[in-house]
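Forum > Structural Biology > Help requests

Title: Can anyone predict the 3D structure of BAAT/Acyl-CoA thioester hydrolase C-terminal domain-containing protein?

Hi all, first post here. I have the sequence for BAAT/Acyl-CoA thioester hydrolase C-terminal domain-containing protein but no way to get a structure on my laptop. I'd be grateful if someone could post the structure tokens.
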Amino acid sequence: MPFVPFCDGWEPDTDPPAYLGWYAASLASADPAVVDAATIPVERIAGRVVLVAGGDDQVWPAADFAAAIAARRDAHGLPTSVVTAPDAGHRVLLPGETPVEGGQRMRRGGTVDADRALGERAWPHVVDALGLAAYR
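Reply #1:
Sure, ran it for you. Structure tokens for BAAT/Acyl-CoA thioester hydrolase C-terminal domain-containing protein below:
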């Protein structure tokens, strides 16, 4: 499967590490043909797509990726919902979820409150896209 390789020699400048810069450096240094080959053909997804992204995601550029996906789908007239919040991080909390305490040690950005608020805003879009009206 095509992929964009991570940039060699990149070192985080925070502890715990934030990987946002690694993604940015890797994409900036990659051959555009490699990036094109690794790009998921989202215009082939026939159904409605819901993209949920925190603007303070420190793992990868989620909001930028979501905007790019939405633009490509919009150009093909495909239904796409984008739900973002500038203060939310990588881990969106949908209604009923609790914050994850474990996992790899890294900066994820946002706050529990911001991540939960984004999840609550996103939930109706997810319910609608899946046709689950009883779960509103």
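The first strand starts at residue 49 and ends at 54. The chain is about 35% helix and 10% strand.
Shout if anything looks off.
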